[in-house]
Amino acid sequence: MKKGFGILIAIFSVLTFGVIALYIMQNIALSSQLNINKHRYMQSSLHLEFAKEYIKSLKFDDIDFEKLDLSDDKYDIVMDIKSETTQKIAHIFVSPKDDTTVRVYDKVVVLK
Predict the structure, then answer these.
(1) Considering the entire predicted model, what is its pTM?
(2) DSSP 72
(3) Interval 24-45: pLDDT, tens
(4) How many CB atoms neighbour CB 38 within 10 A?
């Protein structure tokens, strides 16, 4: 009877510590993925700010294109430009090439 009770306690102990270890490892993996996504979001935001400053630096008459691709080896930066008589609206989309869960968008209006 004592040996059976000892084995039962050992099985429950191993099972409990296994579940706790699995929970800790899942939290570490989730935290790591969140840090990666946070880094990608910050980098995408910096690329977005660059694209906004670039489009703002152009004069109204210099913007004669409808689509502009400023992509590099890690990030896709695409601008769709809608022309009107008094303004041009640039829709800027930025996303990492290796992951599509992070996407950043902004709209810039260039007046005449």
Answers:
(1) 0.74
(2) -
(3) 999 998 888 899 999 999 999 9
(4) 11
